[in-house]
Design a protein that fits this description.
Strand content: under 5%
Number of strands: 0
Order of helices and strands: HHHHHHHHHHH
Number of helices: 11
Structural class: mainly alpha
Length: about 280
């Protein structure tokens, strides 16, 4: 075989086969870990003959999840709505607060301690108060999701706004750029990776906040389902609801990772990962 022919037969870097191989290497360990975990769980339950009302086997949980899937999906729509609204409000408040604090130190010194205090409040403790103040609809869950999610956005965006290249910042000031132009054309681009880092955490924190609210004050939602199944000692159904939440949480995290790769195509964290 001639040299050109041999070169033509070599796999091209970045070809579909190489991409599939790299994706398998990324997913393979996670799949192996999950299979091992559920296999050990099934084995321990079978060997110890643990009754289902104490710890059900994964097969029992999976069967119950399939049976209750339409009901869980319907109830989860309430949880997702509250979490999405709370995440949106928390993100907007966090970004707005970060812009103010990053530009005016006096506001940071005045407002950041208050943000820390709100972050340290035990949300399980204020959930009953929110039930008294706001009732049993979406409002308490939205407030909890907002309180949980705004602080990571605030801290990350402050760091991102202040991470702009000093030389680029000096250039913008030299050409007479306004504070708004510096924010939108320079600082915001350096903030986006930090914002996505916060959102990847917050997407599940928002769900957790909404579920905490549902455990104390809700007529609907997956948290209400978990609460009722626990009170009725329907442990397989409770485990099935928790597994449903785990699956949706992983799905939301994967969606955020996919979104980050599409939005931050220019950032080194995406380029060095090969777009995976």
């Amino acid at each position: 075989m001639t040299a050109p022919a041999a070169a033509a037969t070599r796999p091209v870097p970045g070809a579909p086969s190489a991409t599939r191989s790299s994706r398998f290497r990324g997913v393979g360990p996670a799949v192996f870990g999950l299979v091992t975990f559920f296999g050990l769980w099934q084995l321990i339950v079978m060997v110890t003959n643990t009754p289902a009302f104490v710890v059900p086997a994964p097969t029992v949980v999976a069967k119950r999840l399939w049976e209750e899937l339409p009901n869980y999906a319907y109830e989860f729509s309430y949880t997702l709505a509250a979490a999405a609204i709370g995440l949106t409000i928390g993100t907007i408040v966090g970004i707005f607060g970060a812009v103010l604090m990053a530009n005016w130190r006096i506001l940071e010194k005045s407002l950041f301690p208050l943000a820390v205090v709100l972050k340290l409040v035990p949300f399980v403790a204020i959930a009953p108060l929110l039930r008294i103040w706001l009732g049993y609809e979406l409002q308490p869950k939205i407030v909890l999701a907002t309180l949980i999610t705004f602080f990571p956005v605030l801290v990350n965006c402050i760091a991102g706004l202040r991470s702009a290249d000093p030389l680029a910042l000096e250039f913008f000031r030299t050409v007479g750029a306004s504070r708004w132009e510096i924010l939108t054309r320079l600082r915001w681009m350096t903030t986006l990776p930090y914002l996505y880092a916060a959102l990847k955490v917050n997407v599940n924190l928002a769900l957790a906040g909404a579920i905490v609210g549902e455990l104390f004050s809700s007529k609907n939602g997956i948290g209400m389902v978990i609460n009722e199944t626990a009170l009725n000692l329907d442990i397989p159904a409770m485990f099935a609801a928790i597994m449903f939440l785990a699956i949706t949480g992983v799905s939301l995290t994967l969606f955020m990772n996919w979104s980050e790769r599409r939005v931050l195509v220019w950032h080194e964290s995406v380029r060095t990962s090969g777009g995976r």
